[in-house]
Amino acid sequence: MDLVRIARHLFVLPGAARRAFPPGSLDVIEKAIRETERTHAGQIRFAVESALDLAVLLRGRSARERALEVFSHLRVWDTEHNNGVLIYLLLADRDVEIVADRGIHRQVGDEAWAALCSEMERKFRDGRFAAGVEEGIAAINALLARHFPREGEAGANELPDRPLIL
C-alpha cells in the first residue's frame, strides 16, 4: 500500500479537474478534437479525473487500470475501424494514460504512446494543462491520419468530442 499516493489523492479536491480545465479550455479541446477528426477516420476522447476514491486506492488500482476501465465505459473500443483513442489524465498522480483500440495500437505500438504520455506529463508538471492536451491531440492526429486517413466525404462522428470530467 502506497501511503504517499493515498494521501495525495485524499488532498486533491474533486474540483481540481475543473480548475485545471475551466469551461473555455474544454471548448478549445473539444474544437481541436472535432477539427482533427476531419483529417482521419479515427476517434479521440479525452477524460480527466481529479483523484480516485479511497476504496479504489486501497485495492491498489493504478492509473492505467482506471484508464482501461474508462476506455471500456466510454465505449472507445466500439468504433468501425477499431481506431478509437482515449487520453486519460489522473490529476492526483499527474499521470497520462493513452489507451488505443487494437486497430491503431497495432500500427503505433507501446513506445510511441509512452513517448506521447511523457511529453504531455512534462507540460502538466509546468501547469500547462490545456496546451499539453492540445499538443497530445495534434500528435495523435498525425498518427491517425497516417494510418487511418479520411477517405471521401467526412464520415459519421462515432464518439462525442466533448472532454469529460469524471
By CATH, the topology is Diaminopimelate Epimerase, Chain A, domain 1
Integer count of domains = 1
Q: Within the largest sheet, what's the order of strands?
A: 3-2-1-4
Secondary-structure element string: HHHEHHEEHHHE
Radius of gyration: 16 Å
- Number of helical runs? 8
* Major β-sheet profile: 4 strands, mixed
Percentage of residues in strands: 5-15%
CATH architecture: Roll
- Uncertain residue ranges: none
- Mean residue pLDDT: 92
Structural account:
The mean pLDDT is 92. The protein has a 4-stranded mixed β-sheet, with helices on both faces. It has one domain (3-165): Diaminopimelate Epimerase, Chain A, domain 1. The protein has 8 helices and 4 strands, in the order αααβααββαααβ. Helix 3 (23-36) packs parallel to helix 8 and helix 7 (110-125) packs antiparallel against helix 8 (129-147). The longest helix is centred in the C-terminal third of the chain and has 19 residues, at 129-147. 52% of the residues lie in helices and 13% in strands. With 166 residues, it is an alpha/beta fold. The chain has helices at 3-11, 16-20, 23-36, 54-58, 63-73, 102-108, 110-125, 129-147, and strands spanning 43-49, 84-90, 95-100, 164-165.
